[in-house]
Design a protein that fits this description.
The complex is a heterodimer of chains A (213) and B (254). Chain A is built from five helices and 14 strands. Chain A is α/β, with parallel strands linked by helices and 213 residues long. Chain A has one domain: 3-Layer(aba) Sandwich (Rossmann fold). In chain A, the strands form three sheets. An eight-stranded mixed beta sheet of chain A has the order 2-1-3-4-14-13-12-9. Chain A has a four-stranded mixed beta sheet with strand order 6-5-7-11, with helices on one face. In chain A, strands 8-10 form a two-stranded antiparallel sheet. The longest helix of chain A is centred in the C-terminal third of the chain and has 12 residues. The model of chain A has no long low-confidence stretch (mean pLDDT 94). In chain B, 36% of the residues lie in helices and 28% in strands. An eight-stranded parallel β-barrel of chain B has the order 1-4-5-6-7-10-11-12, surrounded by five helices. In chain B, α1 packs across α3 and α9 crosses α11. Chain B starts with a strand and ends in a 12-residue tail after the last helix. The chains are: A alpha/beta (213), B alpha/beta (254). Chains A and B meet through α1, β8, β10 and α5 of A and α4 and α6 of B.
Chain lengths: 213, 254
């Protein structure tokens, strides 16, 4: 199987590559959009600002090839900033258009909990994945238990327009947000599965076992 | 609350001193990383113990090796003084950098770095020495040089500049294994909006519990307690869990 990791000038690509290799899957980290044509699974990683991320994709000519890839029904996983880029737009340092692969917006992590207690931002740390209304079977969460803890580090979060796209939620500081999004063959994790020890690696493995739609 | 083993590195070995001085070799970086990962560590902090002195950072090779089979966040500090240094260490597999000396010499560096890599990638490491009742001075070059800068003011300033996390090390407590400098950590915790990691003085699980009872820090970075096997990550987490402090379940890393 051919796994492609998109290199659009941001960091932590090696971590995803290493994580896949830990269970024997070789992947190609590439800045070349042509490589998407033969891919069986595509991963969009990323840390940094939304605007820089979109610019990185645009400058390297990734936008159309990603759209075509997704339209073909093959699975895509966005990680952290990569998840946020899947949405329509973000309000990080302005208002910027995303990839429009999942309806929704990216907004700041709430600065205070439900009781008014201030929250530390960025949200950094390990937090549990909670069940939403969706069944996890057959998805990237199909092989981990509810309550599994993942490593988060972010100041913004995606808000899907439709509830049925929320695959898992996470509570930070008294506020529940969408931590895993799923829309057809497009998935996104706000946390870093490649940095979330055994359960995180299981999520990556589950993603690679998903057949296209 | 994250449990973060801290590995001070010199000449490709893990060293440990007292008050950041008198360094003794305690082990191999990759081996200790794997051990702490297996015990359930939530993150690992690497500090180049001599980088500021020699104006270099040599941790890239270590991080490259460790990141092949340790799948938790890796934070690297010591001798990070340019955007290229940050890019290089992140490319090697690190997730975050911790900046001290370069931030104090050129505060604009924090802003520049956080704009390029995002605040979540830029931690500022503060080395604090008590100089009076409730007053601490910031030190640089691994606790060797004084700066005349007030730690509490500096902590607030680095957040304004874009730091996404503060790692505060008490030089007085460092290596002493007699508990954290709780007053200092609590002061900073209450004044800044970003996560705070406390370092220096952890010798027993009770020390972490005592700290958390007064200041709900995002993490503790500990060295002696793990390197000298006074406890281990698993036992520390069990202790904290029983005390009602939220920690990630143990035994989940492998």
């Amino acid at each position: 199987m051919k796994v492609v990791i998109i290199d659009y000038g941001l960091c932590n690509l090696l971590s995803v590559h290493n994580a896949l290799r830990s269970f024997g899957v070789d992947s190609t980290v590439t800045p070349d959009p042509e490589k998407l044509k033969g891919a069986d699974a595509l991963i969009l990683p990323g840390v940094g600002a939304f605007e820089d991320g979109m610019k990185g994709l645009r400058d390297r000519g990734f936008i159309r090839p990603i759209e075509e890839y997704v339209a073909s029904g093959r699975p895509l996983l966005g990680i952290c900033l990569g998840m946020q880029l899947l949405f329509d737009k973000s309000f990080e340092f302005g208002e910027f258009e995303g990839l429009h692969l999942i309806p929704g917006e990216v907004v700041p992590v709430k600065p205070a909990g439900s009781t008014g207690v201030p929250c530390k931002i960025p949200h950094v740390g390990w937090n549990a994945l909670l069940k939403s209304t969706r069944d996890w079977r057959g998805t990237i969460l199909g092989d981990i238990p509810a309550g599994a803890e993942m490593y988060f580090v972010h100041s913004y979060q995606g808000v899907p327009e439709y509830k049925e796209h929320v695959l898992a939620e996470t509570d930070y500081c008294g506020n529940r947000f969408c931590s895993v999004v799923a829309c057809g063959n497009v998935f996104g994790c706000q946390f870093h599965p490649e940095k979330s020890a055994a359960d995180g690696l299981t999520i990556l493995r589950s993603f690679l076992s998903i057949k296209g739609v | 609350m994250r449990i973060i083993p801290r590995l001070d590195i010199k000449n490709n070995t893990v060293v440990k001193g007292i008050h950041l001085e008198g360094l003794r070799v305690v082990g191999d970086p990759a081996e200790l990383s794997r051990t702490y990962y297996a015990q359930g560590a939530d993150e690992i902090l690497y500090m180049d113990a001599v980088a500021s002195l020699y104006e270099r950072n040599s941790l890239k090779d270590i991080i490259r090796v460790v990141s092949e089979d340790v799948f938790i966040p890796l934070t690297v500090g010591g001798g990070i003084r340019s955007i290229d240094d940050i890019r290089g260490i992140l490319r090697a597999g690190a997730d975050k950098v911790a900046i001290n000396t370069a931030a104090i010499r050129r505060p604009g560096f924090i802003r520049e770095a956080s704009q390029i890599f995002g605040s979540q990638c830029i931690a500022v490491s503060i080395e604090a020495k008590r100089i009076g009742d409730g007053v601490w001075e910031a030190y640089v070059d691994t606790g060797r040089e004084t700066t005349g800068i007030d730690v509490v003011e500096w902590a607030q300033e680095v957040v304004r500049l874009g730091a996404g996390e503060i790692i505060v090390t008490s030089i007085d407590r460092e290596g002493m294994k007699n508990g954290f400098e709780i007053d200092l950590v609590e002061r900073i915790m209450n004044l800044v909006s970003v996560p705070v990691v406390a370092c220096g003085g952890c010798g027993r699980p009770e020390h972490v519990e005592a700290l958390l009872n007064r200041a709900s820090v995002s993490g503790v970075a500990c060295a002696s307690i793990f390197h000298y096997q006074l406890s281990d990550v698993t036992a520390l987490k069990m202790h904290l869990g029983k005390a009602g402090i939220p920690v990630r379940a143990v035994g989940k890393n492998l």
